[in-house]
Design a protein that fits this description.
The complex is a heterodimer of chains A (218) and B (458).
Chain A lengths: L1 E5 L6 E3 H4 L6 E6 L4 E6 L6 E8 L4 E7 L7 E9 L5 E10 L4 E10 L5 E10 L4 E10 L6 E11 L5 E10 L4 E10 L3 H9 L4 H13 L3
Parallel strand pairs in A: 1-3, 2-4, 3-5, 4-6, 5-7, 6-8, 7-9, 8-10, 9-11, 10-12, 11-13, 12-14
Chain B lengths: L15 E2 L6 H10 L4 H16 L21 E2 L13 H10 L1 H8 L2 E6 L2 E7 L1 H5 L3 E4 H7 L1 H7 L10 H9 L4 E5 L9 E6 L6 E2 L2 E6 L4 E9 L7 E3 L2 E6 L4 E9 L4 E11 L4 E8 L4 E4 L2 E4 L5 E10 L5 E10 L5 E10 L4 E10 L6 E11 L5 E10 L4 E10 L3 H9 L4 H12 L1 H4 L4 H18 L1
Parallel strand pairs in B: 3-7, 6-9, 7-10, 8-11, 9-12, 10-13, 11-14, 12-14, 13-15, 14-16, 14-17, 15-18, 16-19, 17-19, 18-20, 19-21, 20-22, 21-23, 22-24
Antiparallel strand pairs in B: 1-2, 3-4, 5-6
The chains are: A mainly beta (218), B alpha/beta (458).
Amino acid sequence: MSNIKLSNEKFSNHDLKSLLNNSGTTHSINIEANSCIEIHDNAIENEKLELIFTIKENAKLNYVLNTKNSKHDIERKITFNLEGSFAKAFAKCTHLGQKSQKFTITTVQKHLATQTTSNVEVRCVLKDNAQMRCDNLIHVTKEADNCQASQSSKCIMLSASSRAIAIPKLEIKNHKVKCNHGAAICRLNDEQIFYLESRGLDFFTTQKFLIDGFLLLS
Amino acid sequence: MKSKKNKPSLNNSYEFKAEVGLNEELVCEISALKNEPLWMLELRLKALQSFVSQPLQSWGPDLSKLSTDDLCFYLKSVKKPFQSWKKVPEDIKQTFEHLGVPQAERAYLAGLGAQFESESVYHNLKEEWQKQGVIFLDTDTGLQKYPKIFKEHFCSVVPLNDNKFAALNTAVWSGGSFIYIPKGVKLEIPLQTYFRIQSEKMGQFERTLIVADEGSQVTYIEGCTAPAYSSTSLHGAVVEIIAKKGARVRYYTIQNWSQNIYNLVTKRAVAYQDAVVEWIDGNFGSGITMKYPAVILKEQGAKAELLSIALATHKDQIQDTGSKIIHMAPDTTSRVVSKSISSNGGQANYRGLIKISDKAINSKSYVQCHALIMDNDSQSDTYPYIDVANDNVDIGHEASVSQISEEQLFYLMSRGIDKNQARTLIVNGFVEPFVKELPMEYAVEMNRLISLEMEDAS
């Protein structure tokens, strides 16, 4: 397990691969107080990783996972420990699963201090025999007054033999909170397909447009 | 298991009271007392073995304090159920009169059952429905009179080894309701059974079997109460519903057990082609409740609706409720709306499963869970599980947890409504989708209950 400390004095924008200094699968990353850090993870070479982010007071973390260029099974276990008050953590994960690729993402949003904010979004498109398992937990402790946490997982299924499992969980031990989660699993919207096709696009292009739009999390 | 002998002890108030503890002899004895066919005894013994061999579940509320060795598993109060309310023994009658049960029958029910401890004391169905072939009996009499229907459906929805407490129920079941609605009969007014646990350290194991034949329709209401004792009692019911082609079954539960009751029940329905099953589930009382009403959508076009509410308003009270919907056929739909309120250190959880098999093409499911937490000692957890093995589906889930919105409170208070009243109003609005579905009498009762709980909370 490696320990990494990040603060604004170093960089604000990181590529995860260059950040990890050893080949272990578990990494602990501290975001120091008052810093604002963005981390990009393109899941190349590191298919299986466990990341533990500890976010100190008034710090902000943006974590972006984009698996576009990976052909392997991907597994991520990410914990966001919001340890200092006013800490913020945001995660955006997009995945396009093909063939018999497996995508497993487990996230934990642990609110340990007051006024903390977090949001995790997962968007996934499954082709062929691809599989997805999305296990997301929001945990709010008794001490974390006035925190806001949200989580959403959306999945579009393009093949009858693909499989999606979504387990969004909430564990709330405090009443001064605003927490919500959502999960949706469906196919491409018929109306949107019709609209684009009626403009003269063939089905293949239509599908590509809609999927690209869906996976473009801005 | 204890090998202690079960000597029947007769006293003034009970016809038969089994010794505490559970063993094979007790199961044989219950079966013999009820004069059951051999296949039922064999089933009971098999279930007992399954109960003993299964460990306690590793998830959810802690049940280690519940000791099944100290419970009395069978308490018979009367020889056989009466069909006339007048004949019911005075002390039992008074208990139910006090709860307003017989008035309800006169007012708006097609039939009424009352269960006191292990046995049914009263079962009656209005004549016009009897003429149409509707069967509404206590489950024991049902087994004696209609063994054929019984053998076909008993344990077909909830297998005897389904879970530890379903196994226990199958081993020592007694009482409950047996309902059969013939083809095409539409029972427009509801049937009701009222369950009462009167003594302490008692296990009530009612078994309800509802068979709705093709094109029929039935509404059933289950009400439960018990007086408060310091020692624990267990209510371990199993409910099986079979909704055949085009049938419509609506099942209400209004559970208001006292704090000392463990309410561990298994409720499951099978819906065949175009059938509709609706669970309307209100959990207000009990110490620990674990209840996950389930619907298996077995044939094309079947539909399931579940509307539930849980109030956890006392310290250490756990309402671990939820739903299970299994889509096994094309064009099946389901909708789950779950609401919970936790206050004064209570814990209200939602635990759900939506499973879409590869055959369930074009199926739709929507799950909505909302939780209100009133103070910082209380807790609310949500664990939905969504498993989809098919691309032609539409699944949505959303959940939220929050306290009473400051803005809403401010709005109402700025209109001159005091804080308590405003809170009550908001909470009443929160549970409105549930209350709306209740029969009138229950809706009034429910609103009153919530005002009462709110007064406690503030």
